[in-house]
Design a protein that fits this description.
It is built from three helices and five strands. The chain has helices at residues 25-35, 45-50, 60-75, and strands spanning 15-23, 81-88, 101-112, 117-126, 129-140. The N and C termini lie close together (10 Å).
Length: 142
Amino acid sequence: MTAQIQYADVEVGTELPARTFPVTRATLVQYAGASGDFNPIHWNEKFAKEVGLPDVIAHGMFTMAEAIRVVTDWAGDPAAVVEYGVRFTRPVVVPNDDEGATIEVSGKVAAKLDDDTVRVDLTVMSAGQKVLGMSRAVVRLA
């Protein structure tokens, strides 16, 4: 597969479709099983609070993975992402209730680069706070 978006059709400021991703305790258990990361801060409320967290928190890599989905869905090909990085600024706190938490992700093209690539800057929020900073991806377009 190759990216479905044409480099010539994209301008600086082009907004990607925003997405909201729900996160529950069950989601965290599933991710722990898939990733092998069974750190108790991601599933044990008592332990998380004992180490100074407000509650169970989502895995940082899970949060990062959910955020990049906005880019891969927009580009139409996960392999179009040639570079991706973030700074973890705040944890996604996941309460033990029927609602859990949400991760809200928006993005826009911040720069057109060489070789048919663009830099996409993401804004990643949960509970009204930015949870990933410097969230940027370089994407090769068609």
